[in-house]
Structure formats: C-alpha cells, structure tokens
Amino acid sequence: MTTTATQEHRPRATRGGGQDDIFRQLEQLAGECGSKWKFYRQALAVVARHFGSPYAAIRVAQPAGTLEERVTSETADAGLWEPVIEDMLLESQAENSALARLYRVGGDLTRAVLMAVPVCEASGQPTGASRC
C-alpha cells in the first residue's frame, strides 16, 4: 500500500498551539481512528501542520504491507529535500534514534531543520520512520 497526498486532503492541526495541544490532538485522533493505517496518515498531517512543514513523509512496515505517505504544501520543492530526507530516514531506522539537522538554504540566511524519528510499536520495536 503506497499513498501520496497533499495537506489540503488531510485533517489540519491548529498551528501555533503548544506542545500539549499537539499531544491532545494525536491522542484524540488515536481514539477516533479505526486502524493503524488511518492513524499514521492523519497523524502525519497533524504533525506537519503543527511544525509548519512544507514536506513531511512517513514509512511504516507491517505484516499487511507498507504504508508510505507524503504531505506537501503548495510551495514545497520536494525534489530538493527528498534525497536528504530519505537518507535521514534510513539512518533513523537503522540506529532506532531520532535525528535533527540544520541546513542553510541558498546563499541567504534562510535555514531549514530536518527531523527523522523512528516509529515504534507499543513493545518499543521499530516499525518505520517519519520525517519532516
């Protein structure tokens, strides 16, 4: 199972809310979703919106198949960041640890932070990774 979507087709989180706000939204979403797949898809959109991420993706492997989901803004240049993010995804999965890196964009003072985190089952076993 492979899907690709834009933020316009996913639930939106309230940007600017505090840390408790995003946790509350994810907790509510977990209670409402009928499946892990649906939760992963919608949670990615919530997290991307919370952080104002122009590009976010998740990859989760389960016995039933693999979910790959991407959320992009209208202004995102996925081609620019996707190779870097894919490398971070593999490293995060291999080391089962969260990563964050700061990049300077172009010759100006614009900065971008890329994050990759492992997605784990309740047992703590890694099952995939998410990045934005």
Give your account of this protein's structure.
The chain has three helices and six strands, in the order E-H-H-E-E-H-E-E-E. It has a six-stranded mixed sheet, with helices on both faces. The protein is 36% helix and 30% strand. The chain has one domain: Beta-Lactamase (2-Layer Sandwich).
Blueprint of the fold:
Elements: E1 5-6, H1 19-32, H2 36-51, E2 55-62, E3 65-72, H3 78-95, E4 99-104, E5 111-120, E6 126-131
Parallel strand pairs: 1-3
Antiparallel strand pairs: 2-3, 2-6, 4-5, 5-6
**Ends apart, CA distance between termini:** 21 Å
CATH topology: Beta-Lactamase
Give the fraction of residues assigned to helices: 25-40%
Helix count, DSSP H or I runs of 4 or more residues: 3
Number of domains: 1
Encode the helix/strand succession as letters.
EHHEEHEEE
Mean pLDDT: 75
- Which term fits the overall shape? globular
Give the low-pLDDT segments: 1-16
CATH class label = Alpha Beta
Strand order of the largest sheet: 1-3-2-6-5-4
The helix-and-strand class reads alpha+beta
* Number of β-strand runs: 6
The assigned CATH architecture is 2-Layer Sandwich
Sheet with most strands: 6 strands, mixed
Q: What proportion strand?
A: 25-35%
Radius of gyration, taken over Cα atoms and rounded to an integer in Å: 15 Å
